[in-house]
Design a protein that fits this description.
The complex is a heterodimer of chains A (267) and B (538). Chain A has 267 residues and is of the alpha+beta class. Helix content of chain A is 36%, strand content 14%. Chain A has three domains: 112 residues, Orthogonal Bundle (Cytochrome Bc1 Complex, Chain D, domain 2), CATH 1.10.760; 73 residues, Cytochrome Bc1 Complex, Chain D, domain 2 (Orthogonal Bundle); 47 residues, SH3 type barrels. The two termini of chain A are 41 Å apart. The chains are: A alpha+beta (267), B mainly beta (538). Chains A and B meet through helix 3 of A and loops of B.
């Protein structure tokens, strides 16, 4: 074997030693999952894959998002690697014809995008975070964890396994332009004189289904309603990094990232 | 049998078909005269009539009794996912299709008479319906063939190749039958495959002429493409069109140029993409064209069906062609000459053009082109309207369409053309978070485009469901929530609705059998028909 092969081999050994690989990555990926590899994979993706998958893999009109909340058919490093190199028969995903190194780096980036909060180590005290959750932050007013809490917002029992750390952080601190479907705040005045506030679970021109702030289901035909007022913004506050002290916020993040129906991948 | 067979076989075919015809006009045989002026109880072409007005003269169902409309039958199509087929009804027989399959149903009972499947079904794709002429039913296939079936039994009589599926072509539109000819088109513009319109002999399947949507070197319009970019220019013909038998002109909307989002390789106006072309039905020669979006960068196919109406314009009777384009503008043209008469936006959120010149050319707003990071554009790529059919009601004089408000983010990246049907869009688009999409049914004044009313389809964000107008004073609309709704054509007030349970992604029709009027629409995996309960119709 010539000198280039041995040089590459020794670089690979060095990279392996330096990389902070977790057990979540497969054995065939020679690069580990360090931040440099993730960054290289990100750059490669944005050069080669946006045609169908959109910039940063947020979804294009021809290919799905790389890290959307859905079930994945291809989860392991190997499966992703083969999807890239061989294409996916019966779909529009072609064999990309790129080098194996480039393909592995893209795989590493995709996996990093998909990592859930529970797979990542988060500094903070979970127990204190729980006290913030049920106490000062008053999250239990609208959220349920293991059967305890209010119904106006989503159930958080499996939050850490469902969302990435970045998504959780954004939920607490970034205002979104519109409330998500199923959680739009609404106030209904009925023709028989009642006023009910809550969130709309579904609606159409002829019916409205909502959960009231009494935590009960209310179902209406439109002709039973006198007036509906919609709020444009979600009920979810997005200033927790200001309302809470730095320690309280960090502990809350530690608590939230561990909420899960399953254990960690590494446990 | 393929088209590439000997003259002897073709002669034999002709003998067999005319032999069938010579038994006498049997129930269900469709003549050209009937296509010109269909009996009220029949729905004989994609747009009901050649002018594509989608207006049924039936008035048994009207504003007073529509509240009693009820499901008459449901026919589930095996293996269907999201039907886009417009049914054709001939004397009580309904022909519906899905990719690679055609069904003939008893339109009164919703029961299958026959079905045909393409074997092998070599390719997946879309299918929007069939055409009928004589005793034949015509369908085009995902592998870009035109197939003629016996209307009484579903046996295949002939098939002809429109385009090569190996190159990546398909043919999703309902074929279009005129006198002795069947018109069919191609899809694949987003893959850089150039489009055309073919006319086939209705009896033998022999191709009679071809109109190329991207002009070749030496032909007028080729100079609107820099260098060799015309070779991968796109310009698909993926939907049906309209026909004026007096002028003998076919009016067809043409798809987008390729690469969709990157204009650098294809500088120039890129004719005849995103245009309407008026093509001589005898020989396929171009009589005139009008381009809605020159050198487009947002994939705004102009395949939206043009509606033909003879109406007064500024005091004079004129032969008009109206077209609500994906780019957000509603156009009124003279269909004899192609002269631009009027144009106005039919949506509120439009940021890519400040208006139209007096020739109808858009006045572009700079800074709305797709970029690598993504640029904000209203309407989005999926458009202010799309392939779902509009309708015209002669009593109200209004043009009705399914419109979409909302914006998108369009992205661009460099891409090489790759033959064989690989994507050549040079990226794509996503829905805007700030201005998510919202569907409306809107009624416009025919000649001014002024909005007369709108009906917001609550919770509806996706397009696909079209409209039908009836002489009962009603507009029927579907939506992506699965609702089939009757609106008062004058006011837009909803008078009746039914939850079909699955997303409606097709345009509805109306027909009658034995004096009973039906409304029918494809919804998800089902074809659903509605009628008044028997006692209520008097």
């Amino acid at each position: 074997m010539d000198w280039r092969d041995s040089l590459v081999k020794s670089c690979v050994y060095v990279v392996l030693l330096l990389a902070l690989s977790t057990s979540a990555l497969g054995a065939d990926n020679p690069f580990g999952s360090g931040p440099e590899v993730i960054a290289e994979g990100h750059a490669l993706f944005n050069k080669l894959c946006t045609v169908c998958h959109g910039v940063d893999g947020v979804a294009g009109d021809r290919g799905p998002a790389m890290a959307a909340s859905r079930r994945y058919l291809r989860r392991t490093d190997e499966e992703l690697f083969h999807a890239i190199q061989d294409g996916i028969p019966g779909s529009q995903m072609p064999p990309m014809g790129i080098s194996e190194d480039d393909a592995w780096k893209i795989v590493v980036w995709i996996r990093s995008e998909r990592a859930k909060a529970i797979d990542v180590h988060v500094e903070g005290d979970r127990q204190q975070g729980s006290e913030v959750f049920w106490g000062k932050a008053d999250c239990g007013r609208c959220h349920v964890v293991r059967g305890r809490g209010g119904l106006l917002g989503p159930d958080l029992t499996n939050l850490g396994a469902r969302m990435s750390l970045k998504q959780i952080r954004e939920a607490l601190t970034v205002e979104k332009p519109h409330p998500p479907f199923g959680f739009r705040p609404v106030t209904v005045k009925t023709k028989d004189g009642r006023t009910i506030s809550g969130v709309s679970k579904n609606e159409h021109n002829f019916s409205l289904q909502m959960i009231g702030d009494d935590d009960r289901l209310h179902l209406f035909a439109r002709d039973e309603i006198d007036e509906i007022t919609y709020a444009d913004k979600s009920l979810m506050p997005t200033d927790y990094n200001e309302r809470l002290s730095a320690a309280e916020y960090q502990n809350l993040m530690a608590f939230l990232s561990c909420l899960s129906l399953r254990g960690r991948d590494s446990e | 049998m393929s088209k590439d067979t000997s003259g002897l076989v073709r002669a034999l075919r002709l003998l067999i078909v005319t032999g069938m015809l010579s038994v006498g006009l049997s129930a269900g045989e469709v003549t050209y005269e009937q296509l010109l002026d269909p009996p009220p109880e029949n729905w004989l072409t994609y747009g009901r009539t050649y002018d594509s007005q989608r207006h049924s003269p039936l008035d048994q169902v009207n504003k007073e009794n529509v509240g009693q409309l009820a499901p008459a039958w449901i026919f589930p199509m095996p293996g269907a996912r999201r039907l886009e087929s417009v049914p054709i009804v001939v004397d009580g027989v309904m022909y519906v299709s899905q990719p690679n399959e055609v069904y003939a149903l008893d339109a009164r009972a919703g029961r299958r008479i026959w079905s045909w499947r393409r074997e092998p079904a070599r390719q997946r794709g879309n299918n929007r319906g069939v055409a009928v002429l004589g005793n034949l039913v015509y369908v085009s296939t995902p592998d870009a063939h035109l197939v003629a079936l016996d209307a009484r039994t579903g046996s295949m009589v002939w098939e002809s190749k429109i385009a090569s599926a190996e190159d990546g072509y398909s043919s999703p539109a309902a074929p279009f039958a005129i006198d002795g000819k069947i018109i069919a088109g191609t899809a694949g513009g987003d893959n850089g495959l150039n489009g055309w319109l073919d006319a086939f002999d209705a009896t033998t399947g022999e191709r009679l002429w071809r109109f190329h949507t991207i002009p070749h070197p030496g032909e007028p319009g080729n100079e609107s493409w820099a260098g060799d970019s015309w070779k991968t220019g796109g310009g698909a013909t993926w939907l049906s069109g309209s026909f004026d038998p007096e002028l003998n002109l076919l009016y067809w909307g043409i798809g987008n140029p390729a690469p969709d989002f990157d204009g650098e390789p294809r500088r120039g106006d890129n004719l005849y993409t995103e245009s309407v072309v008026a093509v001589d039905a005898d020989n396929g020669k171009l009589r005139w064209h009008f381009q809605f979006t020159p050198h487009d960068l947002h994939d705004w196919d102009s395949v939206e069906i043009p509606i033909l109406v003879d109406a007064p314009y500024e005091g004079k009777m004129r032969k008009l062609m109206v077209h609500a384009d994906r780019n957000g503008f509603y156009y009124v043209l003279d269909r004899a000459t192609g002269e631009f008469l009027h144009g106005t936006p039919f949506i509120d959120k439009l940021n890519w053009a400040a208006g139209l010149t007096e020739k109808g050319r858009p006045i572009r707003v700079p800074g709305v082109e797709p970029t690598l990071q993504g640029n904000f554009v209203c309407p989005s790529t999926s458009g202010a309207t799309n392939w779902m059919s509009p309708a015209y009601n002669p009593a109200t004089g209004m043009f009705y369409l399914a419109a979409k408000e909302g914006c998108g983010v369009s992205y661009k990246a460099k891409q090489e053309f790759r033959p064989g049907g690989f994507n050549y869009a040079a990226t794509g688009y996503t829905e805007s978070q700030e201005f998510p999409w919202q569907m409306f049914v809107r009624a416009l004044n025919l000649t001014t485009g002024e909005r007369k009313w709108e009906y917001k389809q609550v919770n509806s964000r996706a397009y696909g469901a079209g409209l039908v107008s009836t002489a009962g004073g009603l507009i029927f609309a579907g939506d992506d929530q699965g609702f089939f709704t009757a609106l008062d054509a004058e006011s837009g007030e909803p008078l009746w609705h039914f939850n079909t349970g699955t997303r409606i992604s097709a345009s509805p029709i109306s027909y009658a059998v034995n004096g009973r009027q039906y409304l029918a629409v494809s919804s998800g995996v089902n074809v659903v028909a509605f009628a008044l309960p028997p006692a209520a119709k008097d």
